[in-house]
Amino acid sequence: MKKTNLLGLFSALALAPTLGNAADPAAEHPTYAKEVSRIIQDNCQICHQPGQIGPMSFTSYEEVRPWAPLIRMKVADGEMPPYQYDSDVGVQELKGDWRMSQEDIDTIVAWVDAGSPLGNPEELPAQKEFPAIGQWRLAGDLGQPDHIIQSAKWDVPANGQDLWWEPEVDSGIDESRCIKAVETLPSKAAHGSTHHANSHFIVQNEEGEWVNGSRLSEYAYGKLGEMVPEGACRTVPANSKVGWSIHYYPDGKAVEDDQVSVGIWYYDEEDEFDEESAYPQDLRSYFLSSGGDYLIPPHGKLMTQGMHSFDHPVRLDSWQPHLHLRGVAMSMEVFDPKTGRRETLSQASNWNAGWNHSHTYEDGHQPLIPAGATIILTAWYDNTADNPRNPDPDQWVGAGQRTTDEMSHAWIAVTHLDDEGYEQMLAEREAREQRTVATAGDSHD
Ligand code: HEC
User: Cβ distance 248 to 152 under 8 Å?
Assistant: First the structure.
């Protein structure tokens, strides 16, 4: 009952100063029933409920209250909800953004400081419904997928080292089409041990040889599905195969005959999608060093950098940094040699390898990159004992597949434009007085 005493003390401390200051707005503190329950429902319960990945359930006052001091800390530090994307630099308009508003953070802090009171139980909202584990997240908006591709079966052991399973399967696609959305879904049983699951097309070239084609989908723990933005065509090729690269990290539970699935949603007639005028989009990984050519010394730090440019204008639709345990931050900038401008597009300076999000820019806010401009990706590593996630600062760390090795790349969905499309998009944004890379520089905010 130590926690109850602690909370009692918090409430006494919080009330005391208000006696001498009648105008203090904290005197009217938020309650669980009125404000906090709704914030927890909207921001936390998707993971913090029975059977989900959060280690504790937050579906009632009784469940939430013992954790109040830790909730205050995690929320105030921006560690929960887990979404590592800087709020003070770069494009802030993101789809599926899990970051909480400052107002909601302040409400939680004020509630905990006031002793985390329940308030009037009649003000409690109805319980919220959530999609079950093992079900398509996008189904809520799009219905069941039009086409499903499954990996070949594989037995996941209960314990052991990292494992890779790289089967090839038939795609079952008999017509090349643009897709509306794609989602990778680990099985319900192996949900906790499927660390990454990437899939790509394998297509036949003119000589009839099978060669690697474009990326189909990319999944890392915590990732939801992906919608292809308006006006872009991401193609699934007919008569193709799909190559899988699945990374399991055993979590104590053996799963027989496991299969990971990819669901594909196509445009239907109601979507009014014009395939002819759509620009091709692809999702690829962009490296920050040539061929993984880096070594982080024991108790040392390192920075890696990669430059990429295109001979045609492009639109960047999403950005997903990928680093492991020594990685602490990544940024994406653009340098335009014609104007001399260099600008940060996105930055994650509190990297946490437990969470991988594809930061998808809102329509109309995707960075537009002129032909010849350079995209600069920078990653920082900390192999000292100061990095709380570092498993062993005495090790030399190089590039590799294991979680204890490092990685240095970013997944970027790129729509390949022509001059006409680029100018048109720029003009649309200027008309809406929105910020763009090529013209507005750092004028936002
Ligand atoms: C996407 C899933 C997800 C969401 C959303 C989420 N959490 Fe978590 N939370 C987790 C997982 C997984 C852990 C355990 C691993 C970790 O700490 O990263 C965790 C851990 C925690 C912990 C314990 C940390 C510790 O050190 O023991 C607290 C407290 C917490 N979350 C609070 C919250 C609150 C409050 C919210 C909403 C404002 C929230 N979480 C939203 C998944 C989530």
Answer: no
Whether residue 199 contacts residue 262, with contact meaning beta carbons closer than 8 Å, is answered with yes
pLDDT one-digit tens code per residue, 53-82: 778 999 999 999 999 999 999 999 888 998
For ligand 1, mutation pick of 46, 80, 83, 355 (most atoms within 8 Å of CB): 80
* CA 186 to centroid of ligand 1, rounded, Å: 21
State the pLDDT at residue 344.
98
The pLDDT value recorded for residue 444 is 46
Q: How far apart are the first and last CA of the chain?
A: 48
What does the alpha-carbon distance between residue 168 and residue 138 come to, in Å, rounded to a whole number?
25
C-alpha dihedral (291, 348, 137, 50), degrees to nearest 10: 110
Mutational test site, ligand 1, from 48, 64, 133, 325, max ligand atoms within 8 Å of CB: 48
- Per-residue CA distances from 301 to 83, 391, 406 (Å): 24, 15, 13
Atom 42 of ligand 1, residue of closest alpha carbon: 54
Which one-letter amino acid corresponds to residue 266?
Y
Q: In sequence order, which residues have a C-beta less than 8 Å from that of residue 245 and are 6 or more positions away?
A: 164, 166, 196, 197, 198, 199
Q: Tokens standing for 273?
A: 């999608």
Q: Residues in the chain, how many?
A: 445
Q: For residue range 380-436, what is the model confidence (pLDDT) as tens digits?
A: 999 999 999 999 999 999 998 777 888 889 999 999 999 999 999 999 998 886 544
Contact partners, residue 332, CB within 8 Å, separation at least 6: 90, 319, 344, 345, 346, 347, 375, 376, 377, 410, 412
**Closest to 195 in 3D by CA, of 242, 162, 161, 171:** 162
Label residue 6 by pLDDT band (50, 70, 90): very low
Q: How far apart are CA 105 and CA 88, in angstroms?
A: 16
> How far apart are alpha carbons 249 and 197 in whole angstroms?
11
